[in-house]
Amino acid sequence: MNSLLVSRRVIFTIAITSFSIYLVFILNPEGALRILINLLTFAGIYGLSAIGLNVHFGWTGLLNFGHASFMGMGAYVTLLLMPHAAGREGEVTTSGLPIIIAVFFGIAAAALFGLLLGLPAIRLRGDYLAIVTIAAAEIFRLLVRDLESITGGVYGIISYTENLQKFRPEFINSLSLNYEFAPSQAWVGIIAWVSIILTLFLLKRLNSSPWGRALRAVREDEDAVRAMGKNAVWLKLQSFMLGAGIAGLSGVLLAFNYGSLETTVFVPLLTFYVWAIMILGGVGSLTGPIYGSIIFWVIISETDRLAYIFFENANGQQLAGFRFLLVGLLIMLLMIFRPSGLLGKKEELLLDVK
Amino acid sequence: MLDQLGNGLLLGIIISVASVALSLLYGVTRIVNFAHGEIIALGAIATLFLSSPIDYRVLFLDKFSPLGLDFFLSCILAVIICGLFGGLLELILFRPLRKGNVGNIAVLVVTIGLSIFIRHLYLLFATGKVQNFPLELQRRQTYLFFDMTPRNLKVLIIGILVMILIGLLLTYTKLGKAMRAVRDSEELSSVSGINSDNIILITWISSSMLAGLAGVFQATINDVRWNMGFLILLLIFAGTVLGGIGTSFGAMVGGLIIGILVQVSVGLPFMEGHTEAKNAVALGIMIVILLFRPQGIFGQKERIS
């Protein structure tokens, strides 16, 4: 009976996801493919980030509101290790590590940052953890903006996309000629979705391993885990590092998708976007963030039409404002009426302070 | 370093008032209210709308004209509007959530959604422009050993008076005692004949009025922005946590310390040319405090763990 219910929810979720993709084709008779590829690339990157957040909140019950800083750490470390140009003068650095190694260091740096932040934060109760993580993310952002000599400060980092785009397969270029989409973005999108699949395989293995079971036990009853002789704090820290590392990879992909990196990308609103996706997809669900992310980005990319109904001649600021307004409303309504999202399990949801 | 002390005191009193409000609400309802900043901004935006000259048409999409009321009256009305708004939030949103036994974490996430929602309503209707209250410019004067304008000195004095008043109300009136009783145990206080729903409603209203007042202060000293509440929210958290969350006296002192630290840290030797990072100093101190004394300076140990 229970498995029947679960499979029905999966079918419903897949149906609603397919419908939202269909909606993109209906609403955009021209250039639908270009819009869809843009949307799916963002969905892949944010979905990956939401999978990382789900390891924190869904698996371990850690209230992390500093996710943007993990993404930022991954992105900055990776880009600064590769050939790039940074700062006001656009100082060019031609030497650097190959991309695979740079990305490896980026992920490691994000995971280490997770450990660094987790060490003091992990001993705190849920709501304190929320405050500390969001504060730490702001410290990270302010420091990155301020250390202009290293990070390029407000002027950001440019000229790094070639590190990835030189490996772009030829078939994307030829397809892009026929169907009119941006080949560089499609390449980032493909990598994002491949990363999602690999990450999900890894997490699925971990989830059913003794380690994964111990982690979920920490969420349910920390004292019991301690009584069984497991180190609950170290388990939480490992979870923090794993989720942060996944977020770091998604941050790297986000940087490649934008083409230039600025500190304004990693504001707290980025974290809240990822939270909205995770809740929509289902807290604690492995595949939930994928569907949540696609539906979320279809909503985001089609809200402009809605905004034009309320504001004639809406300007860019109003369009952005309207999007965020909807994100806020979505988070609120989901949390009130359906906190388990599309695929989450209600009994696995940690919603009370322990 | 000392020339920043005046600015520090002013920022401190803003954060202090707002921290007391946040701490009061947390103490009674256990809600970490991320939408607190938006009520602060409401105080400022409402004052701007009430007090700007009638022919002033930059704000509000050209559709509504400001009311052009007396400035002091506008401030009082704005604070009352904030109180009503807070009461409304409790009645239509948070009371049903409480009755439905929605967990603390879920309510925290709801306040985050609410904060994003309201903030962008301001962006849509009050535009992204930086506005100022219709007040004439004043020259700074030296009082004792710090410089500030006569108007800002008034803000400081009013702020201190309000704090003393709140302290007295909480300690000596029946209402204050009831609030503290509900904070310690909702069940026990209802057994003693306290209507906890009413107390929570009154807490929401008074907390929002204090937040609105902080917004009026902030906008008088600096300016009105759609995201002004969110910009200062983390400093308010820092002040609240530093003093010990849930303790009003602690929040007052904690807020004051954070405000002074933020402004004075501009004068530190290693901060030269890095003034933008001044908030990072305060947030860093908050994290360190939580590391060694999670209950804050004045908090009691059983409130955390």
UniProtKB/TrEMBL annotation, chain B:
Q: Which GO terms describe its molecular function?
A: L-isoleucine transmembrane transporter activity; L-leucine transmembrane transporter activity; L-phenylalanine transmembrane transporter activity; L-valine transmembrane transporter activity
Report the family membership: Belongs to the binding-protein-dependent transport system permease family. LivHM subfamily.
Q: How does it sit in the membrane?
A: Multi-pass membrane protein
What is the protein name for this chain?
Branched-chain amino acid ABC-type transport system, permease components
- What InterPro entries does the annotation carry? ABC_transp_permease, BCAA_transport_permease
Name the GO terms of the biological process aspect.
D-alanine transmembrane transport; L-alanine transport; L-isoleucine import across plasma membrane
Q: Is the keyword tRNA-binding in the record? A: no
